[in-house]
Amino acid sequence: MTEMFRDKVDVALTVNGEPVEARVPAGQHMIDFLRLDLGLTGAHASCEHGVCGACTIRVDGVSVRGCLMLAAQADGAEVWTVEGLTDTAAITDLQDAFVARNALQCGFCTPGMLVAAEELLSAGGTPSRAEIREHLSGNYCRCTGYEAIVDAVESVAKARAGKGDA
Ligand code: FES
Ligand code: FES
Fold first, then answer.
1. Residue 124: per-residue pLDDT
2. Which UniProt keywords apply (predicted)?
3. How confident is the model over 147-156, as pLDDT tens digits?
């Protein structure tokens, strides 16, 4: 084990609105801190090098790859995971639309998709299908295909803008 992994760092942050204080290995990735230390297993660790988006979480208002961020970097941050966004009902309409449009099969990519989609929708306006595709282009889905996912996000975008039903 290298020095980097042995050294510990104190962090104080909020996770899903709750204060969290911890002493973390300097080299621990945020996704592992959330999953292994806090038991928040919604965000997944898959490629673990920033490609697939399965580990997407929200940090200080923007989508972040949990596998590319160190837990030590989260000191002072406001972190939201799919669990917190679910509990606050921030993504209930997105989740309902994913189900209604069959926008998931195995569901492995879904937490990351939802967090990324919410980032886009919370920016306001009504994104086009092209903009939705572009925004979700860093989130891979291996089994559903992207058409239904874009359908779901588009329907929620229109519903939030008062232009249709999700
Ligand atoms: S696990 Fe982080 S991008 Fe794939
Ligand atoms: S639903 Fe299976 S990877 Fe997307």
1. 87
2. 2Fe-2S, Iron, Iron-sulfur, Metal-binding, Oxidoreductase
3. 999 999 999 9
Query: Which residue numbers in the chain have pLDDT < 50?
Result: 1
From the CA of 77, how far away is ligand 1's center (Å)? Answer: 20
CB 134 within 8 A of CB 97: no
The C-alpha atoms of residue 82 and residue 40 are separated, in whole angstroms, by 9
User: Which domain covers residue 28, as residue numbers?
Assistant: 3-85
Q: Looking at the whole model, is its pTM more than 0.90?
A: yes
- Distance, in Å, from the CA atom of 90 to the CA atom of 67, rounded to the nearest integer, reads 24
Name the residue with the closest Cα to ligand 1, atom 3.
50
User: 85, 101, 121: which is the final residue of a domain?
Assistant: 85
Which amino acids bring their CB within 6 angstroms of ligand 1? 45-48, 50-55, 65, 67
Q: Domain holding 51: CATH number?
A: 3.10.20.30
